[in-house]
Design brief:
With 413 residues, this protein is mainly β. The strands form 8 sheets. Strands 11-3-12-18-15-16 form a 6-stranded antiparallel β-sheet, with no helix packed on it.
Length: 413
């Protein structure tokens, strides 16, 4: 466990129990969409820029329980743009040439209510999982499967499946007075989580991290059982996505009054032109800090932001802001006084200079500072300009732009 400045963070990657499901591979074909929408254009569908084949378009929609219709424009009969896939829910359809597709009726299941009891045995705290496989994260159960022609082509003929994960962990009695949450860095794809048999949340994307506050379901001073159901049968993309808890899981805690997760934003603005070497300039850092009061009473506190250079020396004047009142259960995003960096070292690919910003929440009594919570973020100072082709041709000499292949113009990193 790592504890820093009143925060604690425990990695939960080791010692999981896992059981794979028995989901049969689905061979998607036009029979899955009983209403033929060929020679019609349906409105309200979303362009799927990453799908470049008609069969992949059908399979992508077939595997997504929320997808009502799919359409493929083959480039004939006047439809545009050619060789594109469209999916989702539609509002209406009208006659139009060049389209191939179909639709079906869907009835998405509502998510469980917060704190609802799990109805399945696999997420009950006293369930005997001793026969389940023991493993450490990260884990992908799809790649462990067997290739079959019954699985869809777009995902490499590996059958996508479901699985259950379970893990025990201990929470001390002292943590009952703190905010406690579980952070999942990545689960592919749809997941539902239960703690001690109670629903704590669900997440539908395999490519974004998420977290759940667990105070209401946790047992403090005792053992806790986390159960996660993962459904990988409706992948996010037409490529190989995999399935399972494929990134870290963290048990984290902080004081009731704390900096919100991802709650520090550090935009910097150059206030002078860079020097001749393009390595230094004057800049202002406009820090934004989100603080949450998860306690049961009104809180008063002070927020401080201190920037240090790579040598550990303080850069610029510390930003300080007093917050006289934040109601119980409320959050506030604060715009801190700007911090002036008179000679800021600029970040570049060749010289990736990073500063560190320490953001602290605390109180001052009789001139003595008492820290409640703090975080440390690294950031760079940089200005990027994109000029028109007929303007100064050297203006963008340090700008790095990575483009995906021209077939997919929608993805720019």
């Amino acid at each position: 466990m790592m504890t820093t400045l009143g925060r604690s963070s425990q990695l939960l990657d080791a010692g999981w129990r896992f059981h794979v499901g028995s989901h049969a591979p689905v061979s998607c074909n036009t029979s899955a969409f009983p209403t033929d929408r060929s020679m019609q254009q349906c409105f309200g569908l979303r362009l799927q820029a990453q799908v470049d084949h008609q069969q992949s378009c059908l399979e992508q929609c077939c595997g997504d329980p929320s997808c009502e219709a799919w359409q493929w424009c083959d480039g004939t009969g006047g439809c545009t743009p050619a060789q594109t896939c469209w999916m989702g829910a539609f509002s209406s359809c009208s006659a139009s040439g060049g389209w191939v597709g179909g639709s079906r009726s869907i009835t998405p299941s509502p998510p469980p209510s917060p704190g609802a009891a799990c109805a399945q045995s696999s997420c009950q705290p006293d369930y005997n999982d001793s026969a389940w496989r023991i493993l450490d994260l990260p884990h992908d159960f799809v790649v462990e499967g067997n290739f079959t022609s019954r699985a869809d082509m777009a995902h490499g003929y590996l059958p996508y499946n479901t699985g259950w994960y379970r893990r025990h962990f201990f929470l001390s009695a002292e943590q009952a007075d703190r905010s406690v949450w579980l952070t999942f860095d990545g689960v592919q794809r749809a997941s539902v989580a239960y703690l001690n048999g109670k629903f704590i949340g669900s997440h539908l994307s395999g490519y974004t991290s998420f977290r759940y506050a667990i105070e209401s379901a946790a047992h403090f001073g005792a053992d806790n059982v986390l159960a996660v159901f993962v459904d990988a049968t409706a992948p996010d993309g037409w490529w190989y996505d995999g399935g399972g808890i494929y990134r870290h899981v963290w048990l984290e805690s902080a004081a009731k009054v704390h900096i919100a997760p991802w709650g520090v934003y550090l935009p910097a603005q150059l206030t002078s032109a860079p020097d001749a070497a393009g390595q230094r300039a004057a800049a202002l850092v406009h820090a934004n800090v989100t603080v949450r009061n998860a306690g049961s009473s009104v809180a008063a506190f002070q927020v401080q932001v201190t920037i240090r250079d790579q040598a550990g020396h303080e850069a610029g004047k510390k930003a300080v802001l007093d917050v006289p009142r934040l109601g119980a259960g409320d959050s506030v995003t604060l715009t801190m006084p700007p911090i002036a960096l008179d000679v800021a070292s600029l970040w570049s690919v060749e010289r990736p200079y990073l500063y560190q910003a320490t953001t602290a929440v605390g109180t001052t009594t009789n001139g003595r500072w008492r820290e409640i919570d703090s975080t440390v973020e690294s950031f760079g100072v940089r200005s990027i300009k994109h000029a028109a082709p007929d303007s100064n041709p050297t203006a963008d000499s340090n700008c790095v732009l990575r483009l995906s292949p021209a077939r997919w113009p929608y993805y720019v990193i």
